[in-house]
Specification:
Length: 87
Amino acid sequence: MKSYIIFAISFVLLFSLFQVLSGIILTITYTPDIEEVWNMSANLPDEVVMQGSSSSSFFYTLFIAFLSATIAYFIPKKFTKHSNSIK
């Protein structure tokens, strides 16, 4: 159980670190097409409508990734216990 707790904590920390680093890299390498945006701006509406929350999607992503990693962590242990009991 102790190894699972260490695994879970390190997974959450590494997942968060990689999410932040990928966001930084994508932000640094992004180059907008100013001419295209300027041409599209004439068709934009006058009002802005906000939908959803982007912060909650990160937690859903983290939860699904954590659940998948947990299942992946326990599956090999299940098969190795099963194969050792047959011998």
